[in-house]
């Protein structure tokens, strides 16, 4: 585990929009340690969402190399990328992206549908994951009956259920009030500290970013600064729940 | 799959097209099969020693040989065949027309079959009340008739018809007998829906012609039919003065040939009816494609989520394909139930009372697999479209 979980070598991503080419990322070279809690910050258009898509294997870089746990994943096929997303990466989105009119439990079971886990085991693991984010007793509620904070917890449970090594969160508190946002951040802190899950979070909110140990600043598709300090997580270890 | 349950109304409307298509295929094919079965039974009960002599050539695509090719069969031909062919037991000239028949305040449109006196013997058809007309009545062109049981039922109900006068095209005929019911209904015809009268009377009074439509011939036994056929052909060529090598202006067919060609024509009818119904099945399939496309667009976000958590292209493709097939197969099953029900019900509806329907396992299988294939065929394009979505764009889709 001495090596880094993520190594980016001169990642460039160019979007072709009609005749014009837009350079979203202009050569990112960076490494992320195991069990890191990293916040990526930057103004809109800085390329942070593009970087997240590439880190999450939802997109491929135009050039450059991306090593995930020492394996070059920058040239995989769509289905190979899907398999890695399924086993190693959990996603948490700003708008939750839960299936509507479906129970919390079914949402959490979804990743296991694609990793061929037996339905009984899937149920058990989904129940455990929901309990871990404090949603015991809410398993059979439909997602549209839940509050924003609860929906984000369901999303975290879904990200967690296949035991990922990496969780990517894109503005996870963007649609929540500050109190609920803090509760969500506490859950992230616990996951990072207790389970050693590597956490990468995109945000433009400095308060939320201050939870992270390391902060990376992006502008115009390039890294413009990095800051390491004791994160809020380290200062006030989450007290469970 | 749950998506289908969530949109019950929409799912139902989507499969309605398939339901109607499959039900139509089953019902239509059952009519065709029923007609086929009826014809087979009808010919089977007529006996195997029966032959028919028709005028003209049956070669429809070729040019008809000779002027008035269909008027060249005369009653004398029948008489000659009976007298001079020793493999022939009996003959009966046959001439048909349709006419309005009136008795008291009731009337009925039916087939008037002009026959010779040996018709019951040749066709193996008994007279249950009264008598059949005899040789002298045929010779004199008497205005007498024998009723088929359905006509008797419709005009007389429980009344005794013997000796009563009915009017056929306003000409009075005396009823002298009633034929036994042949029972089973053969396809679109009911054999009991007819009136037999001397062919001489039908020729002169009802048709005003001097020729006959055909001659019914009974061979002395079933194994003498080909012998009889040969003798008749020889005699007819001689009588009609056909030069060696020239084409016949008549045709002799035995019952097996006739049954075969009748079966052939019902087969064509079955295919025709089935194809028309099949078109509605394809329309139903387009309905499925349409709704699946809407469904894919509506669920782009869901597809994005599924892709993000690790669904492969195949998983998404299968999901939507299965939904389409479940829709079409459900529609197929409901359609089969309705189609079978409809073909059973048809005999209770008076309009269709003459139609026999037979639902074969083949037609059910055919309709079912056709429905499933429609689902796969029309579900594939939307499913493929869904599976090729870009996960990032799908997740951002509003």
Largest interface: A-B, 25 and 19 residues
Spatial strand sequence of the major β-sheet of chain A: 6-7-8-3-9-10
Mean pLDDT of chain B: 85
Helix count, DSSP H or I runs of 4 or more residues of chain A: 8
Query: What's the CATH architecture of chain A?
Result: 3-Layer(aba) Sandwich
Q: How much of the sequence of chain A is in beta strands? A: 25-35%
**Spatial extent as radius of gyration of chain A:** 18 Å
List how many beta strands of chain A DSSP finds: 10
**Could you state the CATH homologous superfamily of chain A?**
P-loop containing nucleotide triphosphate hydrolases
Description:
The complex is a heterodimer of chains A (241) and B (398). Chain A has a single domain (35-57, 77-235), classed as P-loop containing nucleotide triphosphate hydrolases (Rossmann fold, 3-Layer(aba) Sandwich). In chain A, α4 crosses α5 (148-160). A 6-stranded mixed sheet of chain A has the order 6-7-8-3-9-10, with helices on both faces. Chain A has a 4-stranded antiparallel sheet with strand order 2-1-4-5, covered by helices on one side. Chain A is α/β, with parallel strands linked by helices. Helix content of chain A is 34%, strand content 27%. Chain B is elongated. Chain B has 398 residues and is α+β, with helices and mostly antiparallel strands. The relative contact order of chain B is 0.20. In chain B, α2 crosses α11 and α3 (75-84) packs across α8. Chain B folds into 2 domains: 2-41 and 262-396, no CATH class; 73-239, no CATH class. Residues 64-68 of chain B have low confidence and may be disordered. The interface between A and B is medium-sized, with 25 and 19 residues.
């Amino acid at each position: 585990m001495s090596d880094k979980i993520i190594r980016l070598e001169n990642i460039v991503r160019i979007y072709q929009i009609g005749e014009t080419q837009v350079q979203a990322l202009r050569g990112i070279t960076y490494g992320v340690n195991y069990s890191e809690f990293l916040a990526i910050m930057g103004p809109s258009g800085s390329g942070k969402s593009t970087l997240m898509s590439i880190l999450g294997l939802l997109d491929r870089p135009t050039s450059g190399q991306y090593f995930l746990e020492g394996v070059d994943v920058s040239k995989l096929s769509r289905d190979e990328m899907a398999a890695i997303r399924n086993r190693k990466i959990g996603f948490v989105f700003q708008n939750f992206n839960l299936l509507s009119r479906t129970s919390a439990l079914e949402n959490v079971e979804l990743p296991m549908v694609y990793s061929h886990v037996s339905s009984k085991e899937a149920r058990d693991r989904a129940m455990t994951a929901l309990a871990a984010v404090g949603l015991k007793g809410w398993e059979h509620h439909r997602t549209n009956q839940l509050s924003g904070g609860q929906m984000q917890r369901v999303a975290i449970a879904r990200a967690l259920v296949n035991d990922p090594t990496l969780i990517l969160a894109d503005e996870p508190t963007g649609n929540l009030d500050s109190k609920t946002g803090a509760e969500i951040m506490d859950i992230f802190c616990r996951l990072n500290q207790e389970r050693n899950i590597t956490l990468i979070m995109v945000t433009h909110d400095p308060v939320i970013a201050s939870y992270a140990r390391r902060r990376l600043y992006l502008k115009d598709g390039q890294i413009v600064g990095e800051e390491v300090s004791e994160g809020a997580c380290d200062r006030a270890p989450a007290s469970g729940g | 799959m749950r998506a289908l349950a969530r949109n019950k109304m929409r799912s139902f409307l989507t499969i309605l097209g398939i339901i109607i298509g499959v039900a139509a295929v089953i019902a239509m094919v059952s009519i065709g099969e029923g007609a086929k079965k009826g014809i087979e039974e009808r010919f089977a009960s007529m006996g195997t020693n029966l032959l028919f002599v028709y005028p003209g050539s049956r070669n429809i695509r070729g040019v008809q040989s000779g002027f008035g090719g269909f008027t060249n069969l005369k009653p004398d031909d029948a008489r000659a065949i009976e007298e001079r062919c020793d493999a022939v037991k009996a003959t009966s000239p046959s001439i048909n027309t349709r006419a309005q028949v009136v008795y008291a305040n009731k009337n009925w449109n039916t087939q008037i079959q002009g026959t010779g006196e040996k018709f019951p013997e040749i066709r193996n058809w008994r007279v249950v009340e009264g008598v059949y007309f005899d040789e002298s009545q045929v010779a004199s062109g008497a205005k007498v008739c024998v009723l088929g049981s359905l006509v008797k039922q419709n005009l007389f109900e429980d009344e005794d018809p013997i000796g009563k006068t009915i009017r056929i095209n306003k000409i009075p005929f005396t009823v002298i007998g009633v034929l036994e019911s042949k029972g089973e209904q053969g396809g679109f015809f009911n054999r009991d829906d007819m009136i037999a009268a001397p062919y001489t009377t039908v020729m002169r009074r009802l048709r005003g012609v001097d020729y006959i439509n055909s001659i019914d011939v009974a061979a002395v036994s079933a194994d003498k039919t080909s012998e009889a056929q040969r003798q008749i052909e020889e005699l007819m060529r001689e009588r009609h003065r056909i030069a060696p090598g020239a084409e016949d202006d008549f045709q002799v067919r035995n019952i097996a040939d006739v049954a075969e060609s009748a079966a052939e024509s019902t087969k064509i009818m079955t295919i025709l009816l089935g194809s028309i119904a099949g078109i509605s099945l394809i329309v139903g399939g387009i309905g499925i494609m349409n709704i699946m496309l809407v469904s894919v667009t509506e669920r782009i976000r869901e597809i994005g989520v599924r892709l993000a958590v690790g669904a492969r292209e195949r998983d998404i493709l299968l999901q939507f394909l299965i939904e389409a097939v479940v829709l079409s197969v459900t529609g197929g099953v409901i359609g089969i139930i309705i189609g079978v029900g409809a073909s059973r019900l048809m005999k209770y509806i008076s309009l269709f009372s003459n139609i026999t329907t037979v639902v074969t396992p083949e037609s059910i299988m055919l309709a079912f697999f056709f429905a499933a294939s429609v689902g796969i065929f029309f579900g594939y394009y939307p499913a493929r479209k869904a599976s090729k979505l870009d996960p990032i764009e799908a997740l951002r889709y509003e």
